[in-house]
Amino acid sequence: MSERLQRARRLLLALDELAGQEAVLLRSLDLVEALRIAERAGPLVDEVCALAAEPDVAELRGEVQVLVERRRRNAALLDVHLARVQGEIQRVDEARRRLHRTAPAYQRSAGGDTPGESRLNTAA
After folding, report:
1. 31 lies in a domain?
2. Containing structural domain, residue 54
3. Does residue 38 register a pLDDT over 80?
4. What is the per-residue pLDDT for 120?
5. Nearest CA to 41 among 6, 63, 60, 13?
6. Looking at the domain assignment, is residue 123 inside a domain?
7. Alpha-carbon distance 2 to 68, whole Å?
8. Is residue 120 part of a domain?
């Protein structure tokens, strides 16, 4: 087995391990760490791509396809989670806009309150 083939195998094993860690993090909703794992995998992917041009590394094509499919599933799961988070952010933004529209009405009806205070602050 050539040195390039051995190196490519080691890189694929490392990438497979990272993909497994990423899948666990995505299932536990640790999206920040999952993205960090994906970033760590980038240089390894680049190196595997460079080695793929070597004729003796071509025998790893099947393993690469399995890994690519695993990463596609992780990416799809990440997309689902990101869409959910974006929806939550939009709902929070809309609630803030409604609060900013209604807050002046509460401040005016408080009468003698100093500016910036309202009845909502009296319990504090």
Report:
1. yes
2. 3-111
3. yes
4. 60
5. 13
6. no
7. 24
8. no
